[in-house]
Design a protein that fits this description.
The complex is a heterodimer. Chain A is built from 8 helices and 22 strands. Chain A is α/β, with parallel strands linked by helices. In chain A, strand 4 and strand 5 form a beta hairpin. By secondary structure, chain B is of the alpha/beta class. Chain B is about 40% helix and about 30% strand. Chain B has 10 helices and 12 strands. In chain B, the strands form 3 sheets. Chain B has a 6-stranded mixed sheet, sandwiched between helices. Chain B has a 4-stranded antiparallel sheet with strand order 2-1-4-5, covered by helices on one side. In chain B, helix 6 packs parallel to helix 7. Chain B is globular and about 55 Å long. The chains are: A alpha/beta, B alpha/beta. At the A-B interface, helix 6 and helix 7 of A face helix 2, strand 7 and helix 3 of B.
Chain lengths: ~450, ~250
Amino acid sequence: MELGIFNNTYSYLSEAFEKEHLKERSFESQSLLAKRAEAFQLFNLKGFPSVKNEDWRFTNLNKVFKEDYQFRKQEPAFSSSTGTIPGLKACKIVLVNGKVSPELSDPLPEGVSFLSTEAALAEEAYSGRIGAIAVQGENAILGFNTAFFKDFYVLHVRAKKLIETPIHISHHFTGNTEAALIAYRLLVLAEELSESTLIETFHSDLQAPVFLSYVSEFSLAESAVLHTHWVNSASEDLHLVHHREVEQFRNSIFNNSNLSLGNAAFIRNNLNCRLKGSGTETNLLGSYVVNGSQHVDNHTIVDHQKPNSNSMELYKGIMLDKSHAVFNGKIFVQIDAQKTNAFQKNNNILLSDQATINSKPQLEIFADDVKCSHGSTVGQFDEGAMFYLRTRGISEEAAKRMLIQAFVAEVHSKINISALRDYVSQLLQTKLERDNLIIA
Amino acid sequence: MLQIKDLQARVEDKEILKGINLEIKPGEVHAIMGPNGSGKSTLASVLAGHPGFEVTGGQVLFEGQDLLDLKPEERAREGLFLAFQYPVEIPGVSNMTFLKTALEEIRAHNGLPAFSAKEFMKLLREKQDLVEFNTSLVNRSVNEGFSGGEKKRNEILQLAMLNPKLAILDETDSGLDIDALRIVAGGVNKLRSSENAFLVITHYQRLLDYIVPDVVHILSGGKIIKSGPKELALELEEKGYDWLREVETTE
């Protein structure tokens, strides 16, 4: 019997579910309320996952629960910055503390629609998908979101539409004065033969910590192409547990990047791709540059279920100070998934004796005609390169900065939107400028 | 410009340099020849400030300043340059960024304003021509996937861009075919002036046909055992390194 975390936040939630939460949700359909009840039951039984749970072995949620969190009444808030990416032509949707801010958001092009909570829940076609892609199983933290999410957004790209302007969802957290729980979710439907780009950025400016539970479910129909980018530049008071579940049907292409370049104290990303059709392509990029006592955990699953699919995964990270990063990448090749090509690479550099990386690649292959490889490395800087740079007049600190940028450039250079690439390199530079990089 | 007095250095427990004396004046080209393992590359590394070597004795003055007190980057900013025997590949750092950063650091140290992008490009194109360096290589990562000859030409390109007072060429001729050797030597010759100096380290006399030295030193067993005019290199080439043993025993 695994032990969960049953703390004050848990007790608060256990009580609040019926007394407060369900009362606010009376407008919801019976089927959704039943789904919530079931999810709550799981969460109530298991609590938050502790390090005894294999999937959370290296990531201790108790770090987050130094404070007792509660759902707070979120006043309509304005964010000081709107998280604009300089030079990027995009349709922006701004969410402040999980609530959409229509006055800060742009109209969308024809062929895409974005629905907010009430409208989205009113349609069974959308609300019925909740928890149908990201199936909760025994996952209590997923259950927590399903039971308690306050907002639900849908991004729906219609069949055969080519949406050239990226959709930019900018997530802001601001203005709270007490430790707050925020929980919401997103459903993205990419219909057949559509192509679109979704950029998500995270920003925060907080007076008290926020524990954010964010679940996103993606469905890519036959021959749909979806490019998604996720850039986290939030400040240290944000604690994020994110679960993204993607289902891909025949010949669809999913490209995802997940970059943690901010100062958020705690980030857990679960990214699961279920390749349910043949001929799919999946490219997953990730980077994390962490310092101080930051904790960033990336768990990924690429599940090849049908033949002739390709997946490529590259995550690179740099750990400074007392930071801790986790990479856990699973690849499944199911018995039907012949002619699968699946590659995974995770490279890390530790720049301090007190920094930690737990890197665990896992490959489970049940088919016999496949090409798969995975590799994980942990290293330090190449002393030869350091010396070479220094003999050209470049200071030790500048040389270190150059080598950090160079190390993650393998990931960042693959971002094909130049304004976003510039934004990312600017974020990294800002992060590196603030840090003292000379470490014994 | 450079005065080396009784320089001794070791790596881990192994004594490699056992008392080197050498003086180089502006406008001069000195060559150091010697068999493998004589300490040639160690001397180059110690002068550039490689952290893997420990100086156990002696003194090095560069323009009157104690060189051994300076960090590698400070030595570079003061005008010392080492062309590496094995230039390092740095994936992800573009050659252009690298050159620009280095040049800016050195110019800032000398109280000079940073170049505009236009000025930098003009200088770069000029120096590229000097070593027939392909523009596509400038845009690539530093030395990544370069051929041996391209790497060596990149060293000379950096030398030309940074315009040091003293350049040490550590076996720049190794692994070069004759065409590449001519290009590299031609580049060096065009950079020679009465203000700067070169220390050319080589195993073979061939390079010295193209970069003609004022003085040739023979290094063996961690010491300079003989110095002389450029003809010494020819003599050494003719008689082979075995001849050195006789020189050593007679002196």
